[in-house]
Description:
Layout: E1 8-9, E2 15-16, E3 45-46, E4 54-57, E5 60-62, E6 71-74, H1 78-96, H2 103-111, E7 120-124, E8 134-137, E9 140-143, H3 149-168, H4 206-220, H5 244-259
Parallel strand pairs: 6-7, 7-9
Antiparallel strand pairs: 1-2, 3-4, 4-5, 8-9
Helix pairs in contact: 1-2, 1-3, 3-4, 4-5
Amino acid sequence: MDYNARFYSPYNTHQFTSPDSIIPDHYNPQSWNRYAYVRNNPVKYTDPTGHWEMHIDDNGPYRPSLSDFGIKTSGLSRTQKDIVWEGARLIGSRINGLSDLPIADAFRTAHRDNINNKDVSISITGVDYGIGNCITDSHTINCEYSLTTEGAIHELGHVFDNQFNSFAGEFWASNYLPTHTREITGYKGNDFPYVGHSWIHEGGDKMIEEFADMYQNWVLHDLPDYPRSGFTSDVPAAYSPWDRYSYMNYQMTNIWLPTMGMVIR
């Protein structure tokens, strides 16, 4: 059977005859079997492309849209929307690994302003060259130029920070980071785009940017497609005895996500 990208054998192996050229969800062990059809769950999913399982409902197969993630955009090209979508998917997948929420629901709970019923808003106002130069205010991201996947996750980290504040009142997630001079210890990459703002932010916003960088690298940690993103096992002095990844996991599972109402596995 021809599934566009690959052929499927419905008789003997009940698998694709060649491996997938991508791993659609790095956080799901079933996705690492690159011969499998829809995570071995054809009752729940279908795969019309040969690359990506899609949910099935009464209206047929669908892939979660930006709207499903609780995101609206303005001024973005199709390519730019795909970059934002991939960033949201990776975030939702990482959070899904800690909770029982589906990917889109996990992202939406942690980012969409459900208290005021407002989607995350992302706009690009300039021409499609250059990278980023974004300002994030509450749940609104305004960029002068296009985003990278890393940059999209960084800015959505600011949204997560603000979303936590909407639940916690006086506190932001970034308030939980130790106050210190920013340093590169513990990051795999020490320049853009692995850390979004180099080390120039030493004023009042330094911990806000530190949090967004930590969030970005937490989401991308140990993903083969992003080999220079993520953390090393080195322990920054201010975080001791934690390395950065362990610190983020602890805060996510014990404070930040439960405060937003998520049930942790």
